[in-house]
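Inputs:
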Amino acid sequence: MIGLPALQGVYLRGSGLTENADSRLQVISRKELRELVRSQLLMLLEQGNLQGAKALLVPVQPADIAEAIEELPEAKQAIAFRLLSKDEAIEVYENLNSNVQQSLIEEFKRQEVLDIVDKMSPDDRARLFDELPAKVVSRLLGQLSLIERQATALLLGYEAGTAGRIMTPEYVSLKENLNVFQALERIRSLARFTETVYYLYVVDIARHLTGIISLRDLVTAQPEQTIGEIMTRDVVSVSTDTDQEEVARTIQRYDFLAMPVVDREERLVGIVTVDDVIDIFEEETTEDIYRMGGVQSGGDDYFQTNLLTVARRRVVWLLVLLLTNTGTTAVIHSQEDMLKKVVALSSFIPLLIGTGGNVGAQSSTVVIRSLNVDQPQANHPLWVIQREAFAGAILGVMLGVIVVIWAYFLQGSLAVAIAVGISLIAISILASVAGSALPFVFRAIGFDPALMSAPFITTAVDVLGVFIYFAVARFILTRI
Amino acid sequence: MIGLPALQGVYLRGSGLTENADSRLQVISRKELRELVRSQLLMLLEQGNLQGAKALLVPVQPADIAEAIEELPEAKQAIAFRLLSKDEAIEVYENLNSNVQQSLIEEFKRQEVLDIVDKMSPDDRARLFDELPAKVVSRLLGQLSLIERQATALLLGYEAGTAGRIMTPEYVSLKENLNVFQALERIRSLARFTETVYYLYVVDIARHLTGIISLRDLVTAQPEQTIGEIMTRDVVSVSTDTDQEEVARTIQRYDFLAMPVVDREERLVGIVTVDDVIDIFEEETTEDIYRMGGVQSGGDDYFQTNLLTVARRRVVWLLVLLLTNTGTTAVIHSQEDMLKKVVALSSFIPLLIGTGGNVGAQSSTVVIRSLNVDQPQANHPLWVIQREAFAGAILGVMLGVIVVIWAYFLQGSLAVAIAVGISLIAISILASVAGSALPFVFRAIGFDPALMSAPFITTAVDVLGVFIYFAVARFILTRI
């Protein structure tokens, strides 16, 4: 281990850059620095050296402080948090995960809670309130300042997962008749209270959104030009009930830094900023990936959820799959007469349905992804399915040849080997057609296509696969 | 179908907002408007009405024009593109997918190509050049202006997938001794040539990055303050060879709009902006999801890739899985003596290994995702594996009870039913341990954990599953 004092020196030089403290020290990555902050913070708190801990945290970014606090034992979290300056405390608090946020709220005295909650940005506060028990929320809401209470209550009124819930009402609005100089004055006076000043929204007297202008355009314009002259009138906006994933996709599509949100009467009520978009994408992707793995996602952190809840969520899909798989058992059961005669047939069942499942999983994976990111192919199901069927045929032939050789080598029966090979080709084609078609079918009937993913295709192919296998085997064995 | 003239009216009112043309018309979503632009553009081009097509595109966002052009037949793409004004043409071109970009390049006359390529932002140009044949690239590079050539060559010198390749050298740098007024003047003069003016980078005489200041801070500061007084000295930066996914994660972590990129000597060489981050996440997520579905991703669009290439990429994994599955066949083959006696055993093989595969797929999905997004659990493998083992046990017991009943009902043999139930519990535990442990193992030996996903776990569980099943069955059948 490298000596602590030297490293503390590196860190406390104040720059977050990975840099040489002096030429003998190795360059330390930002991640290593974060680990160091974490271990040193714990050490200093255990020594009771609060001044040292305070000094340690001064040059650290709020997101990193939050991470360090999350890793502390619960009893130390509130102590560490109290070392922060008021402004920093709010930023750090917004970065904490919701479990730690809740346990801190319980630790704090009334006034401390109010100081923090009152100054959080309304969208972060709405997210916190989402997680707290309803009783605590109504108590906290009651104690906020009137304006803050209105902002939060507004956000809480919209459904979870919509633009209304993730927007912030803290934006700068301008009127068309202001000139550039006046607009800049207004921005200066509002900059402290608003989430972004880089996009400014132009509204009429009834708060209808009529235009948009960037701070960049404003800074480069002549002071005496009016906003109406230089603003863009072609505004892309979303409405309060737009799904958050669609909001994110729209911002991504147009490379915006923020997106205005309007109500049914086209009045501006808030904005969604690009930093939230990244988190939304991550959340939605996790949900998609969980679904593709057959895990029901509850929107919360899998690893922080109670084990019984986890089991309950997972068992639902497993039961559906198990019921489907009883079909496989029934099919094999019905063929026991043939199996008794040619017991060798049974050894290839897992190989055939396993390979079929894998081919199907590949097809469903690429199709589900293209549906989820709205690729142009998503509009041409027949083309996609046909293409996958061809791919399945090519793959089936390649693998079939190998399997025939392996089957003949293992069992010495040409009839069984040929039956296995032909079945594999048929199963590959079937699996890739099912794997590509079923996500489209699911979308058409209004389900999430991600539900029709690897585990489901694999299981569906199991049933059909053994059926095909026995049909082919019976046909060949009765003729050779 | 709704009448075209009325809809054209709605669109050409110039606002991109979803709005009522008049009270009798239904609200039209932005997506429907895009569809309309597409169909009308094609119609107008087919009629040879170029003035109409030009007027149609004037109020449309560049990203939407690009989409409309992509959907046109190839012969019409160049015609539509030539309708655009020069400035707009560049933005639209940057939004086109690389296939269409390439085919347009081939259609254009020399001067047209130069006009576009010369004015594209260097990072978009580097991406285009990545896709073009080397011969075309060197010809185009030779014809760019010296400064542009240097910018692009600089970017092309870095490895694909690193910060160096995705950064833009178009940023505004300031010196510490400038005052706020002078800095704003400098921004005004540079705003046209730079990708963002919202973050300004402070460098010393040797171009070392010493601080950062936002336009927001600048606008709210007093005109006579110096940059050195108000800038932030704690700069988070990445280096040119940092992996693009890490760059994206860092920007996400700190909610930045842009991230400075420095070279080995800590000199500022470029910035990565937040809009690129979203695209990087999408690209990396697609790669992860493809891997999780057992599809090798080539970084290009699956649906635009030649079918034989697709088959070649998919067959690699299928062969690995097939070879693993021959193990299953061998295990069953070795147990044929018992199968001959109790043929009923074979009907439960697919159900057992299928369920085991599904349980394992669930575990590997949640673990791989937590490794990929760098959740804190990613640092505690033993805790995760133990937890998953418990989950596997709970799930195994729940499903086992159902399976025992089903097996007894189907076969009437209590011994077989109990063997199936006990095997299912053992297989569930094994599958969830394997599903959670193998991604960690893969990470430890330097592979992408996503490779150890559903298809692989399923197949690995197949082999071990039949082995356990026969061992349990033999034990029980010889004793009851």
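Chain B touches chain A through 126 residues (CB under 8 Å). Flag for discussion at group meeting.
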